Each structure stands twice: as C-alpha cells, then as structure tokens.
Amino acid sequence: MTLEKGDLEDIFEENPELLMMDEHTNALLGLVYSKGEAICVYDRDTILRNLTAEFANSGSEEPDLDAEEWIEFNIEGAYLGTQTPLICEPISLDARLWLKERRR
C-alpha cells in the first residue's frame, strides 16, 4: 500500500507528536510502526545531497565532509524519544541477491 494525502492526514491526526524533519521532506520514504507509534523513515542519500548543497552554498570548503559529519552527529546521534525519525540506507539489488544466495 502506498500512503496518499488522505492517509497522511489520518496518521497526523492520530499521531500529533509525529516527528518530522521538515527541511528534508524530499527524503521521506514512508512510515514504520513500532509499539503502536508511527515513525518517519528518511533516505540517507537524499539528506546527504540536501546538506551537501546547503554547505556548498554557505561557502564550506568541504561540503561533503561537513554534510556527513552533520548527519552523524545531529541526526544519527540524536534521540528524541520513541518517535525519533529513522535514517535508511537502501540495499542494492546485487546485495539483496547476494543475501538470498547466502541464506540457502
């Protein structure tokens, strides 16, 4: 099932404390549910691109490094309660096939 606008409206109504990273809505992959709570899941690569561009535009000499460090400290290192947003690193098709063969 793909979440549509109406679904999100219902989810926000039922979960008013849902934590989102408003500056990275283009990185939002979807929601996971744990212990009855909705949790936002974001694509790490998209956030990295967003931050790299932001650091580059602000004159950083090493925008890639600054963006990586910012993610590690401010996002991956943060705990904001049970609804802390999650960061996902997608697994490639080759890696999934390798895992499938390994499990046999």
What does this structure look like?
The chain is an alpha+beta fold and 104 residues long. It has one domain. Helices cover 46% and strands 16% of the residues. A hairpin with a 2-residue loop joins strand 1 and strand 2. Helix 2 packs across helix 3. The chain is globular, with a radius of gyration of 16 Å. The model has no long low-confidence stretch (mean pLDDT 91).
Q: How is the largest sheet built, in terms of strand order?
A: 1-2-3
Global mean pLDDT? 91
What is the succession of H and E elements? HEEHHEH
Number of helices: 4
Low-confidence stretches: none
The radius of gyration computed from the alpha-carbon positions, rounded to a whole number of angstroms, is: 16 Å
Quick one: overall form? globular
Query: What is the total tally of β strands?
Result: 3
Distance between the termini: 29 Å
Classification by helices and strands: alpha+beta
Output the keywords.
globular, 4 helices, 104 residues, three-stranded mixed sheet, 16% strand, alpha+beta
Provide a quick synopsis of the model.
The protein contains 4 helices and 3 strands; from the N terminus they run αββααβα. With 104 residues, it is of the alpha+beta class.
Map the helices and strands.
Elements: H1 5-14, E1 28-34, E2 37-43, H2 44-57, H3 63-76, E3 86-88, H4 93-102
Parallel strand pairs: 2-3
Antiparallel strand pairs: 1-2
